Every structure is written in structure tokens, then in C-alpha cells.
Amino acid sequence: MKSTRKLLLSTSAAVLLILTVSVYGQVHKYYTPGSVWGVTMIRIHSGMDQAYLEYLDTQLKKESDISIKNGFMKSYKILRSQDDDGGWNMLILREYESFASLEKNEAKADEVLRQATGIDDQKGMQGYTDRSKIRDVMGTKFMREVVLR
Predict the structure, then answer these.
(1) pLDDT(52) > 90
(2) Cα dihedral sign for 121, 107, 73, 88?
(3) Each residue of 55-84: pLDDT tens digit?
(4) In what side-by-side order are the strands of the sheet with 31-44?
């Protein structure tokens, strides 16, 4: 009785494993999962382009370069739309190795940036409040890059 039960459990486990591998292969048949991108949609207020670009060229660039140097982030890009239709007009893209590395490094990255920039939580909130006068954050999404085969 015990050997029959053991055989049945072993067979069931093997079948499940084979099905899992088969489904995983089908899901990734057409692409390979790539980097994770944090995509922030920004709406720069009218006439405030230069003020916001100054922030990007100083503080955001410094923080991003520190994050890359310490391995918390792979790269970053900033894209600017030329039309002004009332929606977002700038994208800030931050590339990360994976969702797991993003979550794993969050606290450590915050501490490294705090030490390197001298910006504590209070100063960070003040900066966010100041920037809200020149831009609106329309939203942020984290997206997985799809690398077609």
C-alpha cells in the first residue's frame, strides 16, 4: 500500500514538473524577458521647462549616476515630447536589472543616496514640494522589457 502511494505521488510530481517546464517554454516562445524599466510621466508647467531641466541636469543626474555606480540601476533616459496636448510631455526612464534587484536594493540605495547627497527625508519632501510648482507627476509604471527572439 505504501509503495503504491509513494509511486503515485512520485508520478504526479513528475507530471506536474514536466507540465510546468512545457508551459514556461510556451510563455517565452517569442521573447526573452529583459530589464525592468521605471517609467515616470511628467507634465511640465507652461514656461517652466528651463527650471525643470536645471533640476534634471543637477540633482536627478547626480542621484542617477550614483545609483548606476553602486549597481542599483543600469541606466536612465529622459524623453521630451514636442507637442503640448495637455497630457504628459516628458518621460523619465530608469532601467533596473530585475524586479527582484529593484526590491532588494531599495533600502540600501536610499541610504547610499542620502549619504552621498546630504538630502534627508525632510529636504527630500521640500524638494518635491518645490518641484510641484513647476511640474506634475502624472504617474509611474514599472514595465518589463520584452526582447523579441
Answers:
(1) yes
(2) negative
(3) 999 999 999 999 999 999 999 999 999 877
(4) 75-80, 90-96, 31-44, 135-148
**Structural domains for the chain:** 31-148 (3.30.70.100)
Q: What is the DSSP string of the chain?
A: -HHHHHHHHHHHHHHHHHHHHHHHHHHTSSEEEEEEEEEEEEEEPTT-HHHHHHHIIIIIHHHHHHHHHTTS-SEEEEEE-S--SSS--EEEEEEES-HHHHHHHHHHHHHHHHHHH---HHHHHHHHHHHTTTEEEEEEEEEEEEEE-
Backbone angles phi, psi at 71, to 5 degrees: 80, 15
Q: Are 95 and 128 in contact (CB under 8 A)?
A: no
Residue with cell 525592468: 36
Give yes or no for a contact between 72 and 109, defined as CB atoms under 8 angstroms apart: yes
Q: What's the grid cell of residue 65?
A: 549616476
Predicted model pTM = 0.76
